[in-house]
Structures are given as structure tokens and as C-alpha cells.
Write a structure and sequence with these properties.
The protein is α+β, with helices and mostly antiparallel strands. Helix content is 29%, strand content 27%.
Length: 1426
Amino acid sequence: MAQCVQSVQEFIQDSFVPLVAALCSEEAERLTRRNNLSFAELVRPFCRLTSEVHMRDPNNQLHIIKNLKIAVNNIITHPPQPGAIQKLLHDVVSVSQPAEGLVANVITAGDYDLNISATTPWFESYRECFLQSMPASDHEFLNHYVACMLVVSSSEPDPVEQFLKLSQEQHRIQHSSEYSYPKWFIPNTLKYYVLLHDVSTGEEQRADSIYEEMKQRYGTQGCYLLKINSRVSNRGADEQIPDPWSQYLQKSTIQNQDSYEDYTVSNKNTDHLISDGIDSEIKDGLSNNFKTHPLQLDHPSGSLDSTDYMKASTSLQDSKKSNSGTPHGACLTLTDHDRIRQFIQEFTFRGLLPHIEKTIRQLNDQLISRKGLSRSLFSATKKWFSGSKVPEKSINELKNTSGLLYPPEAPELQIRKMADLCFLVQHYELAYSCYHTAKKDFLNDQAMLYAAGALEMAAVSAFLQPGAPRPYPAHYMETAIQTYRDTCKNMVLAERCVLLSAEILKSQSKYSEAAALLIRLTSEDSDLRSALLLEQAAHCFINMKSPMVRKFAFHMILAGHRFSKAGQKKHALRCYCQAMQVYKGKGWSLAEDHINFTIGRQSFTLRQLDNAVSAFRHILINDSKQPPAQQGAFLREYLYVYKNATQLSPDGPLPQLPLPYINSSATRVFFGHDRRPAEGEKQAATHVSLDQEYDSESSQQWKELEEQVVSVINKGTIPSNFQPTQFCLNRYSDNSKFPLAVIEEPITVEVSFRNPLKVPLLLTDLSLLWKFQPKDFSAKHDGETKEQGTCDESMVGTEAIAEFLINSEETKVARLKLFPHQTGELHILGVVYNLGSVQGAVSLDGIDPSIGLQTGKFVSNGLSVRGRQDLEIQGPRLNNTKEEKTSIKYGPDRRLDPIITEEMPLLEVFFINFPTGLLCGEIRKAYVEFVNVSKCPLTALKVVSKHPEFFTFGGNTAVLTPLSPSASENCSAYKTVVTDPTSVRTALLSSASSADFGVGTGGSPEVIQVPLPDAVLLPGASVQLPMWLRGPDEEGVHEINFLFYYESIRKHSKMCHRVLRHTAVICTSRSLHIRATVCRSNALGDEEGRGDNMLLFVDVENINTSETGVKEFHIVQVSSNSKHWKLQKSVNISGDKDTKLASRERAKLCFKAVRCKNSEENYTFADIVFGNEQIISSASPCADFFFQSLSSEFKRTHVQSHTHASQRAVKQSFDETVRLIQRCSEVDLNIVVLWKAYVVEDSKQLILEGQHHVALNTIGKEAFSFPQKQELPETVLLKFFRPENTPVPARPTPEQLSNLIKTSLHYPESFNHSFHQKSLCLVPVTLLLSNCSQAVVDVMIDLRHKPTSSEALEIHGSFTWLGQTQYKLQLKGQEVYSLQLKACFVHTGVYNLGTPRVFAKLVDQATLFETSQQNSMPALIIINNI
């Protein structure tokens, strides 16, 4: 139980006090009414004695009474009706609420920290009121009147006569059979005569004389002169006199007007206000009639002046009025207070206690004489109780004889009467003895009601005995309670027993027994009683040595439920709130839901709308385990409560709604218009849209492309204020800077909603909430901040979604748009919408209600509330500095705070006839359309891509070159001319500069200028440009990114440029594979007499699989492009004009190449045509793709050579030597193989065309059209090694040295000689030496070399060179030198002349590089004899 203000002893003593009746004349009542008090009310604050009182017991022992209190009440002649008592108790409890600002008691139990009200004043008020309003009964005398005060005013004509009348009236009430109420203790009731004198108006002498007469008539012990109303009304009005009456008068009436108003409002429609079926309230203006109990519901007429002994003498409404500021005791001074106090003391000392003492003696004597005992009951007690005890019968054996009645003079009742008198004057030992005796008598007589009463008071007396001679007999109380409840069916008496016993047990810290007792008395007949007892039981559980927290909470819930049934909404709410502390956050979700729902409902009934909204909000935002029907009910309740709450303050700020959940970090912001769909052959640039998934890798690629083009524009540097363009901001993008948006272009915010409920939610009129600050960035003038409002559509247009349905447990995104019409700073704050539920959204028969619900097709149930939710995005966690690493700090996320900049051009790009599938190397012509859809011109249009070799817009002159008629006839992508049949297989020459095709100008090859006419695209204008595409060499799916860059003609401070993205997806399939090698021709001279020519072998294989529908490939032309070499003619053996390749076929082609004479700058293009049309390889698009492949090849080799940069720590001069020697074996020749493919598709024959490039760099080394993939072994052993710098080889390889000097022997193939005539055969041989390098070379020829292998001798035989055996020569760069030699043979045979050894060294180098160069083919000569 909760803590009480009084101790248990004080509580019991104050519950049972001597009752004194007051009977006043009308004039006396009028005097007291001047103070707004009845006589009984006037004396009530002074009824507790301030000093000890002495009296003697029947044994003449002195007995001390401490802290005695008496009760003075007006006579009531009708017992109170139970319904009225219930009503009074209900009101007492409802007005007693926890004090505002009361410090709660914090109890820590385990991991619970509970705030619990330490005291329960409503329970104490209820208990006090309950005990005082108990009707008097015949089986006990505790609330029978012991004495009666007769009060008459001194101003009456004949006060003595009036006393006589009142005395007769009292006698009639007590002894006449007409009145059965009130009850009187003994027939000879003490009458005490009080003369009331009004000091301010009455004559004091007259009063004194009347008093003297009274003393003679009634004795000094039986009368008193009480002087009151000393205060004159016109005396200082500001004089403060204490008001001791209010606390007594208000206890059982409605204390406070506001709380009463609340109470009446909340119970307006409550049917179960009083559970006993009382259907009418106490009537207004009860007359002051002693015949009518103030708690009686009827209103009989009457005229006698008397008021209730209770506080409820006036009706609720009257007391409400009187309490609103009516002063009590306005005519009394402090002296009058002392006089009243003195009067009560005199009455008690001289009248009441002597009367009680005398009565106890008389009763004792009567009992002794009746029982025939030799000594007093008191002295015999020991003998009775020390001997053998009579076994008490169990309650079940006792007959149901509760109806047995004793006559008033029965000795059993006299014992009980004496016991009660002793109890009232605190003589508990004697009282216990008498109760014990009476109990045995009653049990013997089977008078169960009487026995239960005796047991109850015996237990209390035993407890109150000073010095505690015996333990508290709790079993007495339990028997009494069971008897009252089950046998006598008297719940009022049972309740009194429980209240007393529980308080006693609590004082002994027996909380568990007290709780069990309290719980046992809860029943359906009274919700209020059950609620109060359950609450006290809960307090017992929490106050135990080991607090039982969950039991506390459970019983608090039960108490709250019963309070609610009893109409005590505030108390119900308080109980549920206290229990919530235990269940909250412990995973008891269904219990939490129930408590929150009840708290919400009770708060709503009490008009505590904020609390109601908060409670319902909790039900909805936790992951609820409730079935859909229950969730739907919760949602409807919430909406209803919310609607009421918002109606109270319609102009207030929009409330925060709990549903649906918003995943703020998943919010995406998109700047710009939605992408246009493709129209027929026109395909719009893919750009960026919200439908695309974020890819960090691709995002990085776009950023690099943009940085590349900006770097080119800014001459190789990136400006410090450069901010990469981000069209779509999300949780992965860099949101640390304020994003830039353009005026008049929409901003789309994608908000991710999640419905946690199992019922659909309907959002209507859904739009964004924003704040805008206008700023003119050019004028540097700031405007004032504007919140969203109806008038601000001129600044920022807001698009609303009319209906947005989120099905049960669904996550759904809404895309909301804003249209900025002014420059400035925009802040997107959140979303605003009406939240509603869908009618009939509960599933029936297991069918999901959300199936078939489509936007516009569903009906809201009419309940919706407008509110908002804020978008609060937490930035990324900072982790750079030490401080950031050791603490938790988050950076800013500014994706919702765009800056609106000035007008910028807006480009749209369309691709016409853009293919999705190509053969590797296939050339296709498409068109690109550029449209400026803004109101300002754009310029500096560029495109940047990681794959510039994939496309071209043509060279600088290509746009102006008219297409030849034959080309347009065959729809060829190439520029062609018809060839002369005589020129077949011989080279047709042309030349072109790489600068014409944008290669080698120093810029980045990836950044390509788009050739716009006049370099400007005006507003609304569009231009179409041809675009040639070449299928990548590698088969598969290729994603090729194009970034179009453009600027405005006007320079802006915030935004310098804009970009447009396009990703082309091309699927390539295999076509041809080409490998080529080049080797030096043995023939030193060509037709023109120059010593340099080479043979080129081209191997073409058709690796296409027939799935793509390709029938065959035709090689139509082979072209070479080089600054130094050119193809001269084809040396194919085959006589076919066209070279046709079916699937998996291979063709070998052989060409002769010679050095060309043109300048260093231009490339020479040589075309060898196999068909009847020459493709001009030096024009677009053939040359474009060639130059692009050249630059990408250069880039690839450049990267490789870069990796060896650190390994070049060798002497510079030595490097140059090696370089010169190496250069001899290098050849700079590029081959372009042009082909046509015949494809059958949908029974139509198509001709596709394309080209492959092979770059030949080294003599004798095979080159491929596409780098070969090296197949890695499946498992590789892990090796640990330290990489060592491999030095550049100091000596050139023999292969390189053999290429420094090229040798050739000229001699007759056969030589006839007559050995008979001359034994020695001399043959002239010319040795041609050709310097392949540009440097001057020293050459040494050694003719002494002999073949060492016997095998060689056997095959070729031996011969001798005649003449000089060693020659030293010096050859200039590219020089050819002829040396005449003679060979001497001695007999016929076949000889190999290739024996001379050639050594070479550069002039300025000391080292001689020996080359044992042998010609690749042996120089065989046949010597014949004739």
C-alpha cells in the first residue's frame, strides 16, 4: 500500500470516535449561519483535544487517553441510501488528484527505474469518507450517539423553554417507535445544554443571567455558555483570520471548480457512472431538515432546522458555488476560536468522559450480577483465557444464522456495548477481553453477524494494545471478512475489515498478505472499490523487500481498467501511465499496444489531446504484431483523435505525422527534365534518370570524363571552383557542396515511404515543403526568406500528387517536383500530406484487401488529417583527422539545399539510325541531331569519350566533300570512286595530314570538337550531323559513354558549363582476324633503283560464326598508311579479283612495299583495290578510324614504355647507339584491310562494310588486328620474389644487328667451265652492302670464314675466295655499296656462296658489333663442266 499521512494507530483511532449529536434551535442555527457554517461545522475543527485526559476503569485504575477526538454531527433521522453513498464516494475520489509538481518517488528495481506517486490521497479520502458514511447497525455500537448537545441562542425570548422543547424532541427521536434512526448508545443519553451568545448583537448581562439559571437547573457539569461572533463587520477588512474549516468542509465535497468541470464534461455520456443503478443526482437546495439524510436521493418536505452530520449537507452545485470564494467564520475572532476550543474541552472533560466512565461501571456491574460472578469481569479475564481454550469451529461448520437478532437488553449485547465504549476511550485491553468474551457467546449462539463484528474489533484491539502483549490475530480478521462477505452478504462491513487489516499488515511490512487481502475483496459489484483496492495491492507489490515490478504493473492495469469502468477517467489514465513504465521497451508489444490504446482513449475523453495523439502514435510506429483488423481500428482512432486535436488550433503549425515511415537517407534529388522517350528511329540520349541504379564505378567514369574536357578547355588545368555535375543526388553521391539547379527547370525529389502496418494507407494532396531565399547572383543583392505559402507559387511552383496509396507493409517511392521561377537558395524541408485510411481495408476470408486497389479506384473512409514529416538526412561520418576518428562527427548533407542559378542553355541530343549490333570493325553511318531547347544560345559543343576510336564526326574537310554518286548508290559509308580495270592490284596513292582529323594537335584525343555550323546553336535551333561508327575489335557487349559538353555564350558566376550524358550499348560479333608480317626483300633494288623494299604477308581469317547470318566476307581493298612506306603492288598468285572468305576460311595475301619520298608531316595512303571501286582511304571515315586507332595504339605502347622509365639508368650515349641499331629493324607501316560482308536477314540480303587495322612496327615480328589474349593457367603457384630492375641490354640482339647492314650477293645461278682446259674455275661475284640505318657505319668483310660442319661440306663442297681476304668500308646512311669479289672452284658441284662474315660498328662507337649474318636463303651456285 502507498504511504499514508497518518500512522496506522492514528488512522484507527480517528476512524472510531465518540459520536455526539447536536440539536439546535432555529435562532441558534441563524447565529452560526452568519459564518456560513452550521453548529456542527462550527465546532468541527476544534474537536481534537490538545491535552491528555484521565479516567478510571471499573477496577478503579487510572487510565490515560491521548489525542482524543470526538465527532459532533447534526441529527439525521433517515439512514443514507447506498446509491447516494456511492455517488459521494465517487465524487470524493474524482476530485482528489495528485498534486501538481509533486515529486514522484523513484524506485529502482533491477533494470527498472519507476516514477511512482509515493502517496495516494484519493484512497485516503475515500477511506475516510467511507468509514464516516457507514450507516449505524444493530450488531455494534461504535457509531451510535453517546451524547446530545442542545443548542439555544441567548437572544430567544425564553431560552429555558426552548431547551425543554429540544430535550423533549431528542427524547422523542430516541425512544419513539416512529424513528429507527439515528441509533443511541444507551437509553439514558447524556444531554448537554449549550447557550449560544452573539457578542456583537446580544446583551451579555442577559446571557450571563440565563446561564446562571441553567447552572442551577442542569448543574455546572451539564451546561455551557458559548460566546461567538465577536467580530464587527466594519472592522479592518484587511485583517487576516485563519480559516480552519475549509479543510474539513471540502474533504468529501467537490474541492475545485475546474476539476469538477472536467469531471462533468468527461462523464457527460458515461452510462456506468455509478454501478448500483442510481439514476438521479442529489437535488439542488436540500432543506435543513433532520428527517432527511443528505445522502438521500429523494426530496421530502420538512421545516425543522438541522443539518447533516456529514460534509455533504449541501448539494454538489451548492458546494461548488460556496467554494468559489465564500469565507467561513467571517464574524469570528481568534478569541472566539479559543472559546470554541475551550467549550469542547469542557464538554469532554466534565460531561462526556464522566458519563462514559459511569456507563462502563454500570455495564460492568450489570454483567457481574447477571452472570453471577463474584468479582468483576476485568479481574476474571486472566482465569478465562489462561485455562483450556474452547476449540473454535471453522467457518464452514457454522450455520448461516446471520439473521439472528438479540433484544437490546441481552447480556451478549451489553458485553459488546461495554467493549465498544472501552474501545472508544482507548482502553484496548479491557475492550479486547470483552470482545473475546462476546465473540465466544455469539459463536455459541451461531449469531454470525455479531460474531464477525466481535472478531473484527478483537483483532484491532489486540493490535492497538500498548506494549503489544499478543501478536496481531490476522486469522480473526480473515474469518470476519469471510463471514461478512459470504455468510452475511454485507460487502460494506467486509470492506471496512479489509481496509483496517491491510493497514495493520502494511505497518508490519507484511505486504504480500496485505496484497492478497486487498485482491480478495475485488468483485463485480463495485468498480470503484475494486479499482482502489487493486491499486493499493499494486503498491504493496512494489513496496516489498524485493519489489515485484511486473505484478505491480499488472495490478495497476487492472486498477486502471476498473477506474475506467467506474467513470474515473483521470485515475484510470494515471494507472495506465504508471504501468507503462514497466512494459515500455521490453518487447511486450501487445501489452504496450493495449496500454497505449487505453491511454489514448482516456486522454481523449479528458480532452488531453496531445497525450492522446502521442499514445496512438506509439501504437502505430512500433512494429506491431496486431492483426490487420486491429491495426485498422487503431489507425481510425488515431485519425479521429488527431483531427480533433488539429481542429483546436487550426492556425497552428502543421503537426508531425508518424506514418508512413520515411527513409530519409534513401531520398534522391534529380535536377532537370525527364528524359524524352525514343520516337521511331530517333533515340534520345540516355542521360540520367531516377529509374537508373546508382553505380559508383560509372559515376567515377563520368566525373573523370568531365574533368578531362574541363582540363582541355582550361589549357590543361582544372579550376579550383570546379564542381562535377551531379544530376542525381543520393546516399552514395558527394553531397558536401550545395548542388546547382537552373531556373525554370524542375527539381524532382524521390521520397521513400514505408507502410509498417498491415492495412493500406492513403496519402492525398502530397507535396513538398520548402523554404526559399531569393538572391540575384549577378547583382549580389539578397532577398528575404519565404516559407511555403499559397502566394509563393510565383517563386517556386509545387506539384502535388492527388492520391498516393501505400499497400500493407509496402515500400513505395513518390516523386515530387518543384519548379523554381527565381534565382536564390532553396531549402527542401519535408513533405506535407493528408493521411487517411482506405475504406473496407480489412481483409476478409484471407483475401488481401490491397489486391485490386489502384490509384483513383479506392474510397477514403472520410477520416484524414493534414500534417507533415521532415526530411532530416544525416551526412557521412567524418574520418579524416585524429579528432574525427576518435569522436563521432558527421559531415553536412546538402542534397536538399540547391542553389537556383541563372538561365543556362539546355541541349537535347537524338541519335538517328543508331545500331545496337555491329560486326567487329564494321563501319556504319548514323546521324546525330543536336537541339537547343532553352532560351539562350549554346556554344563550345564538345564530346568526350573513353573510346574515341568508336565514332567520328568526320575530318575537317569531310563535311564539305560531296559524296560520290556510286557511294550513295550503294549506300556506302565510305567515299568511293570507280577504278580503271587496268589499275587493279597496283597501288593508288593519296595523302592526308593527321591534323585534318584532329590527331596529333597536342590536345587530348578523347575530347572531340563537334563541328557545329558557326559553332553556335541558337535557342530552338537544331542541327543534324553525320556520325560514323566502327564496331569495337573485341566481341561482346560494350557500354560506350559519351559526354557532351557545352557552354552558354554569357559567362555565369555559379555555373560555367553543362553536360549531357549518353551511354550507347553495342553488341559486337566476330568478323575477321588479321595477322601480318613484314620482311626485307632479298632484292636490293626496286624499279626505281632504290635499295629499300619489303614484302608484306597478310593472313586473313573469317572467324565469324554463322549465327549472325553472315554468308561470306569479301576483301575489297588493302590500304597502307605510313609516313615512310607505301604498298606498291600485290604479288598474289591467285588470279581472282575478289578474295572471298566463307566461314572459317583463311586467305593469304602478299604485297610489295617500298619507301616513299613524301615529307615527314603527311601520311601516304596507298590503296590496292580488289574490286571495281576504290575506297579513298585518306578521306572520312576510313582515315578517321585509322588515325584514332593509331592514337589509341600509341597510347597503349606509351603506357607500357612508361612503366620502364625507372629502368633507364644506362649511359646516354650507349642508349643512342642501341637506339640507332634498333631503329634499323623498326618499320612504321600500318595496314587497313577493307571488307564487305554479305548478310541475309529476314530473307533480305544486306551488304555490311568495315575495316581492320594492323600496325607493323618490327621487321619479322607478327602483328595482329586485335591483341591476342593470353590464356592464364587455371592454378598458379604463389611465388614470393623481390622484383629486380632488369637493365636495358647493353648489346643489341643478333637479330637487330643483322638488320643494320643488309647484304646481297649477285652471281650467275649456274656457271659452265671446262676443267680439262683450266683446272681452276674463277667466278665474278658482286657483294651488295646496304646501310639500313641513318647513321654512318664502318663495315668489315672477312672472307676467311670456313664452314665448320662436315654436313655443310658434304652438301655444298668447298671453295676459296681470291684476292683480298678482308675489306674495311664506311657506308653513309642509307648508302648501297657494291663490292666485286672472285670465287675459285676446283671441280663441279653445287656451292653456297654465303660465307663472308660481315662486322659493323657505328663510326663514333669503339665497340665493334659482330654479326654472323647469313642470308635467310643460301646463295647456291651450280658449277658445270663442259
